[in-house]
Structures are given as structure tokens and as C-alpha cells.
Design goal:
There is one protein chain. The protein is of the alpha/beta class. The protein has two domains: 113 residues, no CATH class; 214 residues, Rossmann fold (3-Layer(aba) Sandwich). 42% of the residues lie in helices and 20% in strands. Strands 4-3-2-5-6-11 form a six-stranded mixed β-sheet, sandwiched between helices. Strands 1-12 form a two-stranded antiparallel sheet. Strands 7-10 form a two-stranded antiparallel sheet. Helix 2 packs antiparallel against helix 5, helix 6 runs antiparallel to helix 7 and helix 8 packs parallel to helix 9. The radius of gyration is 38 Å and the shape is rod-shaped. The two termini are 58 Å apart.
Amino acid sequence: MTRFPCLGAVIDSWVRLDYWPWVLLGIVPMVIAWFAVGRLRSMLGRIAEPRHLAKLFPGLTRKAGPGRDLARWISRRGLWRGFLAGSALALAALALLGPVRGYALVPVATRQIDVVVALDTSRSMMVEDVQPNRLDRAKNEISALFDVMKGERVGLVAFAGLARNVAPLTKDTETARYFLDRLSPNDNRKGGTDIGAALRLALERLDGQNGTNQAIIIVTDGEDLGEAGLDAAQEAADRKVKVHVLGMGTATGGKVPDGLGGYVVDPTAEGGPQEVVSKLESESLEAIAKATGGIYLQAKGRVLPLEELYRRAIAPMEGRDLVDGKERVPRDRYQWPLLLALLLLMLEGSLRETRS
């Protein structure tokens, strides 16, 4: 296209260039007129010789003018009608193609919704009571959430005993996915699970004051060792920010891998050291979601639960209207060929024969 800039300019002058075959319909009336005129001249030839036609059709003779070859005048008139009708049809098809000329700068309004996803990366998320394990399943669900998002800004927070920022609020879900895939329990500076710290950090990431366009999604197994999750949820409720929770794991739970091929052992357990069993704490997670008017879902037994959560809770949100720059909008000029087509049809109508 760079070798033929003029061709590129011509192509850019049409909005729906795929409709160009419709222009060829303009040939149809011309072809019909050609055959109809030939048949008419043949019929006139069977009625009388050309020099006697003026006596048989005095009305046409007055319109054509004395001394005119009436057969030739009728033929030319018919061909002109076919040409005008075909040209009008072709021009109407050109209007359908959407000709444009010039541009207007129009402000672009965007619907802004901010969502912070807080992912539990504690050692208990390596339990395999959901396949392949809680953490990998959680990553898959969050990645599926990114796939269905439609322009929302998403931020990512990881937490265990402490919470940390992973990705700021952004519309670039591919960048957020890049950091998500690399999260692991080995990144935690402190063990345990502090849902309260994760909620408070997520609230800091939400820069607006209107909770109708903000939400927090927590993905965790619910073992809130800091026991501050409900207090932080109340802070979110005061800001009208809904907290939705996806519970990872099962009520029966499973042993916690220690990363060395064995399992985490609690040396202070009654009856001597015992392997730690981590279970999904549904009641505490439901309480956090309920305190803010959010939704609690359990990953086990559901297909793509975060997609379901998006449809039920995120997509219906009001959003905040922002003017994000200006967009060049081409000026539609379909009126020009359409007006010319109407004029040609009126002219073609004036050439039609009357009964007289």
C-alpha cells in the first residue's frame, strides 16, 4: 500500500468497501433497456415501415418533432431511460458503501470500573484438594476473569502473612497475567494468612471515592490467622466497596506441602508433632462478603466461577464516565450519491411514455 498512496486514499474513503459488488447492479437496467429497445424496434417494423410510423403515432410524433425518425427517437429514449435508471441504482449502491470525506474530532467517553484481585499465596494454597492445587487453580480462574473483562482496570495484590502490590490498576490484562503466572509461596516474606492486610492494601489501590465503580475480589482458602479480615471488610463497606470472595479448597482439606517433598508439621499439636491439615473456612469468607454486600462462591464444583462472578457482580456496575482524549470520526457523505440518484430517477420518470 505504501507504493500506491493514491490507492490507499481511495480505499480509506469508503466505510463499507465490501459492498462494492452491489454497484454492478447498475448494469442490469441498461442491459434490460438494450434488449427491450431491440424488441420494440422489431415490433414497430412489423407494424409499418419507418416512414409511416408518424401517421400511426401522432402523439409521439408531436413530442419527437416533425420530420424526426420516430423509431430512432423511441430507441434513443428507451436507451436513455435504461442508462438513467442504471446510473441511479449504481449511485444508490455507492451511498450504501458509505463514502466519507474529512474528519471530526469527537470526545471519547469510557466506562471506568476498578477491580483489585487479592490472591492468597500462603503455603496452604499448595494443598491438592482441588486440582492441580489451590494456587494453580486460583491462577487459572483469575486468568479466565481477565479474558472476559471489557475495559475495566484491574490491579493485583498477593498476600500471606503480609500483603504486597503485584500489579497497579491497569487495562493491560496481559501484563497483569504475566505477574500472576510468576506468583509462588517462595515470594512471601512472612508465613501465615492475613486477609485483613490484603483488604486494606486493596482499598489503598482504589484511588476513587465512589464504591459504585470499585470492587475487590479475594481468592483464598479462608484461614485468616490474623483474624482481621472482618474488620477490614467493614472498612470497605463504609466506603461502599463490595468485596467478593472465591473460596479455594474443600471442607475436608488436605495436608500442606513443605516444598521439600514432605508436609508441614505442627510440633506444638496435642499428642505430639502432627502434619498440618488445611481446610476451607467457608463461614469466615461468607461473613466477609456478606458484610460488604458482596458474593461468596466456592471454586470446588463450579466451572469458571470468576466468570460467573464477573457477569453477576462486575459487569452490571455503573462505572464512572471519563473523557479519554478525542477520536477522529470520518464525516459520512452518503447524501451526495443518494441525492444524485434521486435526481436521475426523477429525470428517468420524465422520459416515460404516456398513454396519449
